[in-house]
Amino acid sequence: MDYKKYKELQINKKNRILTITINRPEDMNAVNEQLHVEFSTIFIDAEHDDDVDIIILTGAGKSFCAGGDLKWLLRIHGDPVETAYHINHDRKIQNTMLDMEKPIIAKVNGPAVGLGCSLALFCDFVYATPRSKFADPHVSVGLVAGDGGCVIWPQLIGYARAKKYLLTGEMIQANDAHEMGLIAEVVEEEVIDQEVQKLAEKLRDGAKYSIRWTKTSINAGLKVMANSIIDRAAAYENVTQLMEDHKIALEAFARKENPKFKQK
Predict the structure, then answer these.
(1) Which uninterrupted H or E stretch holds 160?
(2) pLDDT tens digit string along 10-33?
(3) 1 occurs within a structural domain
(4) What pLDDT is recorded for position 262?
(5) Whole-structure pTM value
């Protein structure tokens, strides 16, 4: 498999473990247009790579992923064709991660926000450092949580807690996320690399197809649920990308101010 086409994702393959690093540390690994497109294909390529058994997803620098890039979101605001094009990528990302048989480990060292949070939570294991934070603040920027939050949060922590965080956009500290079952482990920063590597090697050296097909069986129920949600949530997010509240929020955040949404 040739990974040279990837520009914003840094790909490293060693001993049947593929490490995918979101490589925009200067922008807290925020998702721009190029990165969004790359995420729509990377898991398909990894699944089809016969030299890979395990995937590790992480971020460069001190952030896992800060969500959507504000400049990019402002540029496409109000364009129904372009927003629909990128919403379709969100659907591809969710479906390919759920369909993937090979185990995926998220190594989170810092904020995982918006799409970045969904990317982490759609992995099979989430290992995070104590300073890591998790949030899906789509509503804070006038959007529906259509890139995975409405699918995965209720399944991990229940509907009551999911509504609390998805309807407010509140941030969750790593230890609290672990306590409520949102993530698998909290690991000190100085040892997280070793712990994730140890898990990856354990899975790699295990009974490959038993592990893969057990994961697939677990995800079968999640897929049924996801299929009833993904299209609706994506469609609603696309509508909100065209609305004035979204633009108000983006412009306010660009000025480092709190948005004042229209009350209708």
Answers:
(1) helix 159-166
(2) 999 999 999 999 999 999 999 999
(3) no
(4) 81
(5) 0.95
Residue 214 located in a structural domain: no
Q: What is the pLDDT of residues 202-218, one digit of tens each?
A: 999 999 999 999 999 99
CA–CA gap between residue 87 and residue 210 (Å, rounded): 34
Tell me how many domains the chain contains: 1
Helix (H, G, I), strand (E, B) or coil at 88: helix
Q: Cα(239)–Cα(54) distance, rounded to whole angstroms?
A: 37
Residue ranges making up the domain that contains 101: 9-191+199-207+227-254
Answer yes or no: is 260 within a domain: no
Furthest CA-CA distance within the chain: 58
Q: Which two tokens stand for residue 143?
A: 């959007």
The model's confidence at residue 137, banded by pLDDT at 50, 70 and 90, is: very high
DSSP annotation of 170 reads -
Q: Where in the chain does DSSP place strands (E)?
A: 9-14, 17-22, 54-59, 104-108, 111-113, 125-128, 133-135, 172-173, 185-186
Q: What is the DSSP letter of 65?
A: B
Among 85, 127, 86, CA closest to 104: 127
**Cβ pair 184, 127 in contact under 8 A:** yes
Q: What is the DSSP letter of 31?
A: B
Q: How far apart are CA 213 and CA 160, in angstroms?
A: 31
What is the percent of the chain where pLDDT is above 70? 99
Please report, as a single letter, which amino acid is at residue 198.
K
**Alpha helix locations (H) across 60-112?**
70-76, 80-99
Classify residue 3: in a domain, yes or no: no
Return the CATH number at 122.
Answer: 3.90.226.10
Burial class (CB in 10 A: 0-12, 13-18, 19+), 123: buried
